[in-house]
Write a structure and sequence with these properties.
Chain lengths: 476, 180
């Protein structure tokens, strides 16, 4: 068994034995300059323009696809009876799931005092919001008459028509809209002190003005900080049950229906674990190129990547248990329909999708992530993160399609085939996501400066001494 | 309302949080009350030195959550039982277990919004102008790497010369007078 010598690890403080989150040699000023500099430089890297252009080019798929959809109706998609739910719902669940890791990092890890999350929480939260934007597109456009999508909300109207609250689809509206709102508020509140820093460091008058407005006049007053910390903790405490409930509610969309393959009680926990699994994969997909491109290896360290890979290993294990239980229950329930559904899922005409799912979601990640060597191998993690998100997309595909296309009556069996419009809108949302993310890294501080400052050794306060050095000496 | 002209206070700049906390404790010890610390990240020890412990943010959050819960549950009951009753496979109109889910979401929504906007309101933000921004060294320090203690002129013990002399007994980088 490989043992590591903690003394030789440069990230461990030899005096206190604590694991430093930020690489040594940084102070308050250097972290601020580093992070704010990425945004405040007038020198936009060419690669940024290139990335934005590629993202924007792909995002036109959403514009073109949706325009044609609004002109012709949902008939241009592959949805039909019996496969009445297709790409729209698959992509919706996939994107929402990706968003969940952002909330997990910003909320649950904050409550567990996992300070390492401070360097990655801002862009994980941004990822959540952009993923929710992409996810929200699909329910809006698949309602058939998207200009009437506001009918989903309870509002007084002259038709005297109201939503029906026993339907999981009405729950969805509440869950997803709450999730989007709270995520944006949490993200913004987290950025207010950093906007203050940006306001004070910006050179351009316009930037000074805009960051000044966004900072609400933040001046770092201690009384403000205490209320701010209290509100942050409360928002974290509220986001935790929220994030668990959102994917639970989404799984109810399936679990409440009386259809073999959907009607199972394991769906809520297994959906939530899958969401976190795919979300952490997406954080890795984003964090690995960004830390390289902007030279942020000191703040998003290998330990961060290692920890994220461990979370993926754990949640991937829960997902694997979910798959196993589905198979077991289809036999143990002694239900003819359940058994047929599982047989059809594995060996029917669309069995290939199930085996891709097993390969990419279970076989590859859950065998390799046990090795620390691979967990800190940046290239491997990047490829793996894409493999896992492919697998998670296939999971939703398998759940939605293979349960629907061969139900109880063989006379009503059919098949499902996505059209080019399905693919165009789906790929387009990836472009939209990329675009939003590129705008975010250029105009907003992508690492929370105030929280990174809190992780530096200089923050230690000594009660009697007068400077930080004596403080550290006293604690030994 | 304190007068909006003349001196707002004396602002001492420190390089480390320990120096700031020490100076704040001493200022409180000798009897100053109207004072505030400005730091680039939350320094809990400074809040202790200022004797500022409780905030009303959690209370607002609780009230918001309860409001969201009742609003959503009553709305659902009114809609599905009285305003627009629908018979769905013979299930009772008052299907309270199903109503819990949107009510749960609105509890979180209202509580979260109350916590965030309550914090902003209690802090008196947005407040784009504040006298401390007039200090020449404040802007490049308080949001980056410097620690400030401001003894305000509204304090009865405040005197321009004596307070300055008091602040200069600490290893402050500078002590500047802040105008309104």
């Amino acid at each position: 068994m490989a043992t590591k010598n903690p003394i030789e690890d440069p990230m461990i403080d030899p005096r206190t034995g604590e694991y430093a989150v930020i690489a040594p040699g940084h102070n308050f000023k250097s972290v601020t300059q580093k992070i704010a500099g990425i945004v405040l430089t007038t020198n936009t890297p060419l690669g940024w323009f290139f990335g934005l252009m590629v993202g924007g080019g792909v995002a036109t798929g959403v514009v073109i696809g949706c325009t044609w959809l609004f002109l012709k109706g949902v008939g241009i998609w592959g949805v039909t009876i019996p496969g009445a739910w297709g790409f729209a719902i698959i992509n919706f669940v996939w994107w929402i799931g990706i968003g969940h890791a952002g909330t997990l990092i910003s909320a649950i890890l904050l409550l567990f005092k996992q300070t390492w999350r401070n360097s990655i929480n801002r862009f994980a939260e941004a990822m959540t919001i952009f993923a929710v934007v992409c996810a929200g597109t699909f329910p809006l456009i698949h309602v058939g008459r998207p200009w009437l999508a506001y009918w989903l909300f309870p509002y007084p109207n002259t038709m005297n028509v109201w939503p029906q609250f026993r339907s999981p689809l009405a729950w969805d509206v509440f869950a997803v809209s709450t999730y989007a709102t709270i995520s944006i508020v949490f993200w913004y509140v987290g950025m207010v002190p950093d906007f203050g820093t940006m306001r004070d460091r910006a050179q351009l008058p316009f930037a000074k003005y805009m960051y000044g407005l966004l900072s609400l006049g933040w001046r770092g007053s201690t009384r403000h900080w205490i209320r701010y910390e209290s509100a942050s903790l409360l928002l974290a405490g509220l986001s935790t049950p929220l994030v668990l409930s959102v994917h639970t509610v989404i799984s109810f969309d399936f679990a409440v229906a009386a259809l073999a393959g959907w009607h199972t009680t394991i769906f809520p926990p297994y959906f939530v674990a899958g969401a976190v699994y795919s979300g952490f994969a997406m954080v890795l997909t984003l964090a690995i190129p960004i830390r390289k491109f902007y030279h942020l290896e000191d703040m998003v360290t290998l330990r961060h990547l290692d920890n994220m890979a461990k979370v993926m290993l754990a949640t991937g294990g829960i997902v694997a248990y979910g798959y196993g239980m589905e198979v077991f229950m289809s036999w143990y329930s002694a239900s003819h329909w359940e058994f047929f559904m599982m047989w059809n899922r594995m060996f029917g005409p669309m069995g290939w999708a199930y085996w891709i799912l097993i390969l990419t979601n279970i076989a590859i990640p859950l065998t390799s992530l046990w090795s620390r060597k691979l967990r800190v191998n940046v290239t491997y993690l990047f490829i793996l993160s894409i493999v896992v998100n492919t697998g998670m997309w296939f999971e939703r595909f398998v759940i939605v399609v293979t349960s629907l296309y061969r139900d109880y009556l063989p006379s009503s069996w059919g098949t499902y085939r996505a059209t080019k419009w399905d693919y165009m809108i789906y790929v387009g949302t990836m472009g939209l996501f990329t675009c939003l993310f590129f705008l975010f890294v250029r105009f907003l501080p992508m690492i929370p400066m105030s929280e990174v400052r809190m992780m530096l050794p200089q923050t230690k306060v000594s009660r009697s001494g007068s400077n930080a050095e004596t403080a550290i000496e006293e604690t030994i | 309302m304190p007068p909006r002209e003349g001196t707002y206070g004396l602002l001492a700049e420190f390089n480390t949080p320990s120096e700031l906390v020490h100076a704040t404790e001493q200022a409180r010890h000798v009897g100053y009350r109207r004072m505030e610390c400005y730091t680039p990240y939350p320094v809990e020890e400074a809040a202790e030195a200022l004797d500022f412990h409780t905030t009303r943010v959690p209370l607002l959050c609780l009230l918001g959550g309860l409001m969201g819960l009742t609003t959503a549950f009553l709305m659902e009951t009114w809609i599905n039982v009285w305003a627009y009753p629908l018979n769905i496979a013979g299930r009772p109109l008052f299907s309270w277990p199903a109503f819990i889910i949107p009510a749960y979401e609105w509890t979180i929504l209202f509580a979260g919004l109350s916590a965030a906007f309550g914090m902003i309101a209690l802090n008196g933000l947005p407040q784009l102008y504040h006298p401390v921004f007039n200090a020449p060294n404040f802007r490049n320090g308080a949001t980056t790497d410097k620690f400030f203690l401001c003894l305000e002129a509204a304090d009865p013990k405040f005197s321009l010369t004596e307070t300055r002399a008091f602040l200069e007994t600490f290893p402050a980088v500078s002590v500047v007078e802040v105008e309104h």
